[in-house]
C-alpha cells in the first residue's frame, strides 16, 4: 500500500465495542489515509466540562465550556494525539468519569454543531493533503459526511461487545468487570439511539457488517473488498 492510496472518505459508524477504532486505524494505515476518531472529540469536550466543575446535564454551562475549548486532533493513525490546549489527554478521556458523562454532553445540540464544523475542517484538510480519510463515530454517514462514497455500519451482539470492551480496558490498565461493561454498553446504546440530536442509526445506503464472529483481519478484508468494488483506490472519488 502507498501513501495517499484512498481517494475520498470512508465513514464507519456503530455502537461501542464493534471494533470501530481498531478497524478504522488499521484501514487508514493500509490505505495511507488520515484517521479521525470523532468519539474522542466528544470525550475531550466532556473532560473539559468535568474539569470546569460543570454538571454534564446543564446544557447552558456545557455549551459555554464547549465554545471555549481549544481541541486539537491528530489524523495520523499511527500516532493518535488528543489535546486540550497543550495538554495531551489520550488516557484521561478513556477514564470512567468521562465514560459516564459523555452521552449527556454529546446530546447537547450546540456541542454537536461545534464539533461538526471542526470535523468538516479536518476531513477537508485530510482529503486535500492525503487524498482520503477514514472517519469513525456514531453519526458519520448520516450527519458528518452523508455524501461519503463508502459508509459501513458495524454491529455485533451485546455479549461480544462487552467482552471486547472488558479486554480492552484490561489491556490499557483500567479495572472493569464483564457485567459492569455490558451494563454500560447497553446504557450507551439506549442514550445514543434515543437522543434528539443526530441519534445513532445507520445511513440508508450504509453497508451493514456484523462483526460478532469476525476478527479484525476478517472485518478489514470485507471493507477492503468494498473499497475496491467502489473504485476508491488511486482515483479521484470525492465526497
UniProtKB/TrEMBL annotation:
It is found in: Cytoplasm. PANTHER family: CYTIDYLATE KINASE, CYTIDYLATE KINASE/PANTOATE-BETA-ALANINE LIGASE. It catalyses: dCMP + ATP = dCDP + ADP; CMP + ATP = CDP + ADP. The gene is cmk. ATP binds at residues 14-22. GO terms for molecular function: kinase activity. Residues 163-198 are annotated as: Disordered. HAMAP family: Cytidyl_kinase_type1 (MF_00238). Gene3D superfamilies: P-loop containing nucleotide triphosphate hydrolases. It is an enzyme of class 2 (transferase). This is Cytidylate kinase. Its main location: cytoplasm. InterPro entries: Cytidylate_kin (IPR003136), Cytidylate_kinase_dom (IPR011994), P-loop_NTPase (IPR027417). Residues 10-227 form the Cytidylate kinase domain. Keywords: ATP-binding, Cytoplasm, Kinase, Nucleotide-binding, Transferase. It comes from Actinophytocola gossypii. The keyword Flavoprotein does not apply. Its EC number is 2.7.4.25. Residues 171-192 have a biased composition (Basic and acidic residues). Belongs to the cytidylate kinase family. Type 1 subfamily.
Amino acid at each position: 500500500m502507498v501513501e495517499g492510496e484512498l481517494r475520498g472518505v470512508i465513514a464507519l459508524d456503530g455502537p461501542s465495542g464493534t471494533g470501530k477504532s481498531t478497524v478504522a486505524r488499521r484501514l487508514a494505515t493500509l490505505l495511507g489515509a488520515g484517521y479521525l476518531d470523532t468519539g474522542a472529540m466528544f470525550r475531550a469536550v466532556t473532560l473539559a466540562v468535568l474539569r470546569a466543575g460543570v454538571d454534564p446535564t446543564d446544557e447552558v454551562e456545557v455549551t459555554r465550556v464547549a465554545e471555549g475549548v481549544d481541541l486539537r486532533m491528530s489524523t495520523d493513525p499511527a500516532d493518535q494525539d488528543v489535546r486540550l490546549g497543550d495538554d495531551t489527554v489520550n488516557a484521561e478521556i478513556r477514564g470512567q468519569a468521562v465514560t459516564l458523562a459523555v452521552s449527556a454532553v454529546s446530546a447537547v445540540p450546540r456541542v454537536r454543531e461545534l464539533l461538526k464544523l471542526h470535523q468538516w475542517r479536518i476531513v477537508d484538510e485530510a482529503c486535500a493533503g492525503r487524498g482520503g480519510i477514514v472517519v469513525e463515530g456514531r453519526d458519520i454517514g448520516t450527519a458528518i459526511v452523508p455524501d461519503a462514497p463508502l459508509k459501513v455500519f458495524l454491529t455485533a451482539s451485546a455479549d461480544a461487545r462487552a467482552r471486547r470492551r472488558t479486554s480492552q480496558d484490561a489491556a490499557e490498565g483500567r479495572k472493569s468487570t464483564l457485567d459492569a461493561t455490558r451494563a454500560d454498553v447497553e446504557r450507551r446504546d439506549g442514550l445514543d439511539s434515543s437522543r434528539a440530536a443526530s441519534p445513532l442509526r445507520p445511513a440508508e445506503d450504509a453497508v451493514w457488517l456484523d462483526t460478532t464472529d469476525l476478527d479484525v483481519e476478517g472485518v478489514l478484508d470485507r471493507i477492503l473488498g468494498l473499497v475496491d468494488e467502489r473504485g476508491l483506490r488511486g482515483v479521484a472519488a470525492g465526497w
